[in-house]
Amino acid sequence: MALFTEFLPSANDYKPFKKNFRHNLIAGISVGVVALPLALGFGVTTGSGAASGLITAIIAGLIAAVFGGSNFQVSGPTGAMTVVLVPIVSKYGVAALAPLGIAAGFLIIFLGFIKVGKYIDRVPFAVMEGFTLGIALVIALQQVPLVLGIQRAPGSHTVLVAIDTFKSAISNSINWTSISIVIFALVIKFTWPKMNKMVAPKVHIPASIVVVLLTTLIVHFLGIKVATIGAIPRKFEVAGNYLETFNAIPIRELGYAIVVIALLGAIESLLSARVADGMAHKIIDHEQRKHQPNRELFGQGLATIAASFLGGMPATGAIARTSVNVRAGARSRFASIVHACFLLMVVLFLAPVVSIIPTAALAGVLIGTSYRIANPKSIIEALRTTYGERAVFIVTAISVLAIDLIWGLVIGLLTNLVLKKLLSSRR
């Protein structure tokens, strides 16, 4: 029984509840507002639909908050996971997400039980920076079909699909309306923070939600014809046909997909939890213990299983949303629970409004998000480090973009190991 004790929730996760209730409530609503357009956008980008993104944010966000090992983590659909899932959906269809997600969730739980968390937590900084840059570039390229307002070209490699989609747009007719909406969305996203300080200096209004509201209002009232999200279901449905989907995927590809999803879910979640600890220490000077890596894996595994089972997709800890959570004043995991409940209220009461959001606006939001993830200042800092770290950073980023996330990570780790040995042998 002692083996499972560390994985179970306790009252200590929420102490002191009454004292911090207001802080957590405000933080939860704030991160919920930020999470809404991202969840919709990642669902659309994956190919499973906006509803799938919302389901993932609600179900995974709630379960990971209760069972995970971080007091500040916010989980849901992420750009990194869409990078992995887009090729799977394009090759095997949306039906593959449920069985693969459930299997990957069990693998993540197993990694927690055998206490792999502490090792994943030690991935070198240069590797993670290159990994993050590669992810940001892939997310941006995934938006090409939405930007151009056309169907994505067939294929599973992001760079090639983006190039073929662009060629298709040129050979047919370019949708300038869609492109204009994306440009408008980007202008608002990058200028709003300064405008926010001028208009309402004491109230932080997320740029993403302003982008979505303004573009939706303009498109709707001016009668502009452009692709929108469409109907959002107000109930969860259990996914089925697991065996049929499993049988349709070759064993080798099946195993690889499960391992890739599980490793990415584990790595990104632990990285996000580690970032949250650092931010919480600086911003609110919390005295709570640091995240528990193995319990975090357990919680993320459960979250991915539940979300996939109910029509969502595999989830991970989300660094951007977790950062918002801490900055907004979160004091415990109750803030993450509030975030999930807020999104549930949106689905129940505002589904008709959400359905008319232009997909081009979401593309603008996600391109802006990929820019934030890449973080030019971090890139400059990474390129100003030692020769070895600079090489690891560049090789990892290129490998992620050219091959895939897991091979990019493996190549980055091997490059780091080889260069360390070469440099140490010269001393």
Automatic annotation (TrEMBL):
One Gene Ontology term, aspect cellular component: membrane
- Offer one Pfam family short name for this entry: Sulfate_transp
All residue ranges annotated as the SLC26A/SulP transporter domain in the record: 21-396
Which InterPro entries does the protein's record reference? SLC26A/SulP_dom, SLC26A/SulP_fam
What keywords tag this UniProt record?
Membrane, Transmembrane, Transmembrane helix
Membrane-topology annotation of the record: Multi-pass membrane protein
> Where is it localised?
Membrane
Q: Which GO biological process annotations does it have?
A: transmembrane transport
Keyword Transport (UniProt):
no
Q: Which parts pass through the membrane?
A: 25-44, 51-72, 92-114, 126-150, 170-188, 209-234, 254-276, 297-317, 337-370, 391-419
What protein name is recorded for this chain?
A: Unannotated protein
